[in-house]
Amino acid sequence: MIKMIAIDLDGTLLNEENQVSKENLEAIKYAQTHGIEVVIATGRAHFDVQEIFKHTNIKPWIIAANGATIYQPNGERFHAQSINKQVALDILSWLEEEAFYYEVFSDHAIVTPQNGRELLTIEMDRAASANPELSVNELKRALEKQYSQFGFSFIESYTDLLDTDMGFYNILAFSFDEAKLSKGWAKFEGTQDLTIVKSAKHNFELEHKNASKGIALNILANKLKVNIDETAAVGDSFNDLSMLKIAGKSAAMGNAQQEIKDCCHEVTLSNKENGVAHFIYSLTKEVKK
Ligand code: CA
To answer: Band of the pLDDT at 288, cuts 50, 70, 90?
Structure first.
């Protein structure tokens, strides 16, 4: 019997307009009234997630920043695992040298350099002119999604953070230049103290090695005295694999890549077709048996 469900946001619970559909909201309420604890598990920052749910009457547990933080339904922090400050500053220094757009997910803000958006506009124009077959609309949508997050705070450079005591929960690097992304991935892959994951086509994200959606799901299941076999998870991307692999029941979205689908117990409908609601109702059917 499933007692807890972890739901990814982008490409999963959110539709193409970056919204939670009425059908998905109803399914979440249905799950809650059937004794299933609903957990949002996302790469986004917790305050961004709280903003998304502000106008609903749903107050979920939130696994944010790819598992680096966990927040209670009442908004209080339950768990945090920050990247060591010096390690984080070294990462940011390298990203700036390489002219990467980046975001640091911290306690109260998404910290990002002033000139980042300019960098991405230049990259987008370059990518579009180098490859006329690229859909410029797809690139623009990726940018809009990135900028639609809540809680940005702008800095001149990472050196503005030298004296800060903020947490460095998640560092996201974004680029339309595939060679640049590969270089970044190669630079940080295998770094002893870090986890590196990909949540979308044009990015990679870094967290402390003890932070992932899967580790966070396990921590939360222990806290709520739910056996890991009684958990379910649904997602669409590589940063979901850690939770999809440990959950008792896993579903890949219909819009997920094949590699993700291959790791899951089942494939549900796409995010345009309320795949999350479809998965929730399939779980509660089993509850009734
Ligand atoms: Ca996703």
So the answer is: very low
Distance 200 CA to ligand 1 centre (A): 7
How remote is the CA of residue 8 from the centroid of ligand 1, in Å?
6
Do both 96 and 189 map to the same domain? Answer: yes
Query: What is the C-alpha end-to-end distance of the chain, expressed in Å?
Result: 10
Q: Cα of 249 to ligand 1 centre, how many Å?
A: 18
| Tens digits of residue pLDDT in 107-138 | 999 999 999 999 999 999 999 898 888 888 98
Q: Is residue 130 part of a domain?
A: yes
- pLDDT greater than 60 at residue 142: yes
Residue ending a domain, among 178, 208, 238, is 208
Q: What CATH number has the domain bearing residue 193?
A: 3.30.1240.10
Residue 289: inside a domain: no
pLDDT, tens digit, 9 for 90 and up, residues 207-245: 999 999 999 999 999 999 999 999 999 999 999 999 999
Helix ranges, 148-265 (H): 178-188, 213-223, 241-246, 258-261
Active-site hit among 8, 48, 236, 240: 8
Domain of 227 in residue numbering reads as 4-81+211-283
- How many angstroms from the chain centroid is the CA of residue 103? 13
Ligand 1 midpoint to CA 12 (Å): 6
| Distance separating alpha carbons of residues 103 and 109, to the nearest angstrom | 10
8 noted as active-site residue: yes
